[in-house]
Design goal:
CATH superfamily of the largest domain: PPM-type phosphatase domain
Strand content: 15-25%
Number of helices: 9
CATH class of the largest domain: Alpha Beta
Radius of gyration: 30 Å
Largest sheet: 5 strands, parallel
CATH topology of the largest domain: Phosphatase 2c, domain 1
Mean pLDDT: 91
Structural class: alpha/beta
Length: 374
């Protein structure tokens, strides 16, 4: 049995519609004005509403507008009852959210037919909404799982790491990790899979698990170029649904205070080292194609010393590929932000970027890792 709400200030119209629809097996509830009708709608959540256009307190357009704005009534089919049959009136009603119209005086067979059609559409809309809710719940669960895989902040007397992941959707293709290979060597990396959503999140999780468990065959995880080659062998686009990814991978030796690193199509990591007047800026990147582009791709390695008091920033391109006021901000602007801010924290960096972006919603996934060397 479907619940139908009829809203009209004319008792005769209410009675006619009620008598026409109840024998069809519907539960018909009536309201004598727009305000009372809206209260009834919010209480009983009907499948279909038939509402007069011209009424006291709230007219039919305002009732329709508020019904369609209510998330609990979004699938309710709304029929405007009116003697206004002009094209402009119908356009106004449709723009407000009305699903159908019924002309006065009421023709009973037309009324019953439009109600049957409206209830069919309501059932379809309701089924789609249920599936959407289930999908969103599953995506939220998957997003919680991905976040649980990401490492906790690393605190130490010599090295500390903090990181932030902000997907453009519930799930994203960015991923990062850091862990000790042994008491002297610390691995840190950040990768960015092409695309967004679940299709990008799945390969990033797979890479994280392979690197964390050191399961790539014949790979020396102390050598960044060896790791990148192993990943490129394992993740060719042709076998990964045309997905590729960029990555920055570094290994830090605390006894030597030396950082060995390699990158594949990824933005450079930025190392700020203290100097008298302003921090020194170093861009740490090695030239190479993204992982998965070509089987024969080669990868090179580089090294740098890490003075006491240095800070390393590793990030995905989503943090600087923003368009404030219709102009692209860009990598160089982001590097200047880090330089002029003088060893900013993750919170300070994100606050400034969000201000430039005009909000905390980004077009691409955003990841940022801050490594502090004492």
């Amino acid at each position: 049995m479907s619940k139908i709400l009829v809203i009209d200030d004319d008792p005769t119209v209410l009675k006619i519609i009620q008598r026409a629809l109840q024998p069809q097996g519907h539960e018909v509830i009536v309201a004598e004005n727009g305000r009372a009708g809206l209260e009834q709608a919010q209480t009983i959540r009907p499948a279909l509403i038939i509402c007069d256009w011209m009424m006291p307190y709230l007219d039919g357009l305002e009732v329709c507008r508020q019904v369609k704005a209510d998330v609990n009534l979004s699938t309710t089919f709304f029929i405007l009852l009116t003697s206004r049959v002009g094209l402009e009136d119908r356009i106004e009603g449709l723009d407000t959210g009305a699903d159908d119209f019924l002309a006065k005086p009421i023709e009973i067979s037309e009324l019953q037919a439009r109600v049957r059609a409206g209830l069919r559409l309501h059932q379809v809309s309701r089924a789609l909404q249920i599936q959407k809710d289930l999908l969103e719940a599953e995506l939220a669960e998957a997003a919680s799982y991905v976040r649980a895989l990401l490492p906790n902040p690393l605190s130490g007397t010599e090295v500390s790491i903090n990181a932030k992941f902000m997907p453009s959707r519930q799930l994203g293709g960015d991923c990062f990790d850091y862990f000790w290979l042994d008491p002297d060597y610390l691995v840190m990396y950040l990768l960015d899979v092409s695309g967004h959503g679940l299709a990008a999140a799945l390969p990033s999780i797979l890479v994280l698990n392979l690197l964390r468990s050191q399961s790539l065959p014949n790979v020396n995880f102390y050598q960044p170029q060896d790791v990148l080659k192993g990943l490129n062998d394992a993740f060719q686009m042709s076998s990964q649904n045309e997905k590729y990814f960029t990555i920055w991978y570094g290994v830090y030796s605390r006894s030597k205070r030396q950082l060995t690193y390699a990158s594949a199509g990824h933005p450079p990591a930025i190392l700020l080292t203290p100097e008298r007047t302003a921090p020194k800026v170093q861009s740490l990147r090695t030239p190479a194609l993204p992982i998965g582009m070509l089987p024969e791709a080669t990868f090179t390695v580089d090294r740098c010393s890490v003075p006491t008091g240095s800070t390393l920033y590793v990030f995905s391109d989503g943090i600087y590929e923003i368009a404030p006021e219709a102009s692209v901000w860009g990598l160089e602007s982001f590097i200047q932000l880090l330089h002029h801010s003088s060893f900013p924290s993750i919170e300070q960096v994100l606050a400034q970027v969000q201000q430039i972006n005009g909000g905390d919603t980004f077009q691409d996934d955003v990841s940022l890792m801050q490594v502090t060397f004492r």
